[in-house]
Write a structure and sequence with these properties.
Length: about 600
């Protein structure tokens, strides 16, 4: 059963795309649209746009796009109908019960079975830790100062040295090889046999915010690489959009969340009473994780290791947190290496004191810069002041920039007027650099060349559909010479049928409504990209008819060539040749000037 189109459209219309996406991504208004860091790929410069007018989003970096349904499907890994039910709940719309399709039922069953499998695996690993087989792992955890209560609270476990013990355990629980194949718990190999992904490792179950086990991290016991091994990504587990410990930290009453480096940091902090600590999942911090934090707090305290790797990790995370709309501070761990060592050495009270004294993120960045230059050498001192001026010039908001200029002038003993002059100069350079950035091109690979050739071939169809959406007043002139049947790509043909039908009935075109007609997320992205295709330049008024004529000519000629390839009728072929000749000579007056 597919829901009525009117119901799908009502739910979409009752959920403004800017409002919905703003709960996941920090958006800033620029002109008519809103921009932010794309949640679907890592980036430092916002290329993710959301249009309130079109009710669509589009990323100019990774090219994902669509309407509010597409966003939820991609971000939360939902089916179209799950996204629809979510949006209906937001809008307070009741939707009728429906029967799932076979494909939906299979997908749902697979997710349920994977959740069960992860739960059984977590129970198994925890039981092994508590058994004589887990004595070595238990000694390791006890030596790290963890209590039984903490071990149980986080469900810690042990994958012992047997290479297929979990496999047989899950087999006994009724899971088939086919179900286990995509679980990231077991490798099914027809040649090597079936074996466990994790062995001889302390196990850290990774839970989502609803406390369901979605994956695992494992620390090797003794020698071995990698030191930490994580689950591969599955339909449940996305490393870049989850955080370790968030299922507990989200309940904390503290104003800020603490972001640290690893699983043991989180566990040690929670045991010491800092239950607002979270960590990435064995990979570098991502924009998706910054967006996730934004849903639960406005402020983040970075508590990374004090070594060079920890400092660099903090420097990478700060811009992402700022772009997500979060206030960020950096806690000093010196002279200790990590939170666990600091608390053991100086106590929880000292750690709490350091949270209050944590440096503002921008000041931390400038203090790190200070250490990179010889302050006793005039040339080094000059380069340092230029470096902090460049850093300050990157602050867009004037009030914030002024406050940090005051703080930097005072902290680094620079005359305020001199620093301001240098900041303004650096700002002008930065503006020119940003303007020139759009002209830089990455080296073209064979894959990109093929994509470009395919896009050039399809470009006229995309451009005409975009023209019709943005300037529907040209439709009467267009309709006389081209129809949906001339759009030979199946997806464009479907979109053309909808656009032409709406315009024939005198309706206002709504791109987001058209996107809703495609339940497949991939199709939705391609349609969204279609609506974000534009001419490389805007023709002068006297050249607009000529430009449109050329677009329509290419569409018609491609459609005629397609028909000629599929006809064996000589008379029909001659008629097509004559039509092709007429199209080549065609001159249109569409704008009516």
């Amino acid at each position: 059963m597919r829901y009525e189109e009117n119901l799908i459209e009502e739910i979409r219309e009752r959920n403004d795309i800017v409002d919905v996406i703003s709960s996941y991504v920090n958006l800033k208004k620029k002109g008519a649209d809103y921009f932010g860091l794309c949640p679907f790929h890592n980036e430092r410069t916002p290329s993710f746009s959301v249009s309130r007018n079109k009710q669509m989003f589009y990323c100019f970096g990774c090219h994902k796009g669509g309407n509010v349904y597409t966003f939820l499907m991609e971000y939360n890994r939902m089916s179209f109908y799950e996204a629809m039910e979510d949006l209906a709940g937001r809008a307070g719309i009741e939707i009728p019960e429906r029967e799932m399709t076979d494909q939906e039922r299979r997908a749902q069953d697979a997710r349920i079975r994977l959740k069960e499998m992860n739960r059984y695996a977590a129970v198994y690993y925890h039981a092994v830790l508590k058994s004589p087989r887990g004595a070595r792992a238990m000694d390791y955890l006890k030596n790290r100062g963890l209590t039984d209560e903490t071990i149980n609270h986080f469900g810690l476990g042990y994958a012992d040295i047997g290479r297929d013990h979990l496999y047989h355990y899950l087999k006994d629980k009724g899971f088939s090889d086919e179900e286990m194949k995509d679980s990231s718990l077991v490798t099914i190999d027809s040649v090597k046999g079936s074996y466990d992904r994790f062995f001889n490792r302390v196990m850290f179950p990774i839970m989502d915010v609803s406390r369901r086990v979605i994956g695992f991290g494992g620390r090797v016991m003794g020698e071995g690489e990698p030191k930490y091994l994580n689950s591969r990504e599955t339909v449940l587990f996305d490393k870049g959009r989850n955080l370790y410990g968030l299922q507990y930290a989200k309940q904390s009453r503290e104003r800020a969340l603490i972001l640290c480096e690893g699983y043991m940091d989180v566990i040690s902090l929670h045991q010491a009473g800092f239950t607002n600590a979270v960590a990435p999942l064995g990979t570098a911090f991502t924009t998706g994780q910054a967006s996730l934090l934004k849903r639960y707090t406005k402020e983040v305290v970075l508590s990374f290791d004090s070594d060079g790797a920890g400092v660099n990790a903090a420097l990478r995370a700060l811009p992402m947190l700022r772009e997500a709309g979060l206030s960020a501070r950096v806690l000093s761990m010196k002279p200790c290496k990590d939170p666990d060592e600091l608390i053991k050495e100086y106590g929880a009270q000292e750690y709490a004191k350091r949270i209050k004294e944590a440096a503002a993120g921008r000041m931390f960045e400038m203090e790190i810069l200070e250490g990179q230059y010889d302050q006793t050498d005039p040339e080094g001192r000059t380069r340092f002041i230029r470096a902090i001026a460049e850093k300050l010039a990157g602050i867009d908001e004037a009030v914030e920039r002024g406050v940090y200029m005051d703080a930097a002038a005072n902290r680094f003993m620079v005359r305020r007027a001199d620093l301001e002059e240098l900041v303004n100069k650096m700002g002008r350079i930065l503006d020119r650099s940003r303007a020139n950035q759009q002209y830089k091109k990455a080296p073209e690979t064979e894959s990109r060349r093929e994509t470009r050739r395919q896009n050039q071939k399809n470009q006229p169809q995309k451009l005409l559909l975009t023209y019709l959406v943005e300037k529907p007043e040209i439709y009467p002139g267009i309709r006389q010479v081209v129809g949906p049947e001339d759009f030979i790509l199946p997806l464009y043909h479907s979109v053309a049928l909808m656009i032409f039908d709406q315009l024939d009935r005198g309706e206002d075109l709504n791109p987001a409504r058209i996107v809703s007609c495609f339940p497949d997320a991939g199709d939705q992205e391609r349609v969204a990209e279609l609506f974000h295709t534009h001419l490389d330049y805007e023709p002068l008024p006297e050249d607009r008819d000529k430009a449109l004529t050329e677009i329509i000519r290419k569409i018609r000629l491609a459609a005629i060539d397609e028909k000629m390839r599929h006809t064996t009728d000589i008379v029909k072929a001659q008629e097509l040749m004559a039509e092709k000749s007429r199209v080549q000579r065609m001159k249109l007056r569409i704008w009516g000037e």
